[in-house]
Amino acid sequence: MAKKKGCLNPNCPSHEKRKMYDEAYIRCPDCGEILSYVCKGCYMKLPNGAKTLCVRCEEEKKDKRKLFRKNTGKAFAGAAAIAVVAIKKIVSK
Ligand SMILES: [Zn+2]
Ligand SMILES: [Zn+2]
């Protein structure tokens, strides 16, 4: 993933829209503020340009993957339960 820069000036429209700029940009085209490396997830300033996500967003990304697996498991269980109820209904008729 390419590193991205963002404007950290809270009064700047670029900051408000969380606009990302390429590394080649030095200053914000909107307000002239020096751009900093920002997290692609939360637009927070990154201490250096080594990563594209901050520690928190990286953890969240991992958690989401876990959550996704859990949810798909639950969905299967739910579908099975509904099928059982449907079969019972047919049998009782
Ligand atoms: Zn700006
Ligand atoms: Zn982040």
Labels describing this entry:
mainly alpha, 3-stranded antiparallel β-sheet, 2 helices, 2 domains, 3 strands, binds zinc ion, 45% helix, 93 residues, elongated
| Number of DSSP strand runs | 3
What number is the mean pLDDT?
89
What bound compounds does this protein have?
Answer: zinc ion
Helix content: 40-55%
| Main pleated sheet | 3 strands, antiparallel
- Gap between N and C termini: 59 Å
Overall form: elongated
Count of individual domains: 2
Structural class: mainly alpha
Kindly provide the radius of gyration, computed on alpha-carbon positions and rounded to a whole number of angstroms. 23 Å
Could you tell me the strand content as a percent range? 5-15%
Low-confidence stretches: none
Contiguous helical run count: 2
H-E string: EHEEH
Largest sheet, order of strands side by side? 2-1-3
Give an overview in words:
The chain is mainly alpha-helical. The protein has 2 domains: 53 residues, no CATH class; 39 residues. Helices cover 45% and strands 8% of the residues. The chain contains 2 helices and 3 strands. The chain has a 3-stranded antiparallel β-sheet, with no helix packed on it. The longest helix is centred in the last third of the chain and has 38 residues. The chain binds zinc ion (2 copies). One zinc ion (ZN) binds next to helix 2.
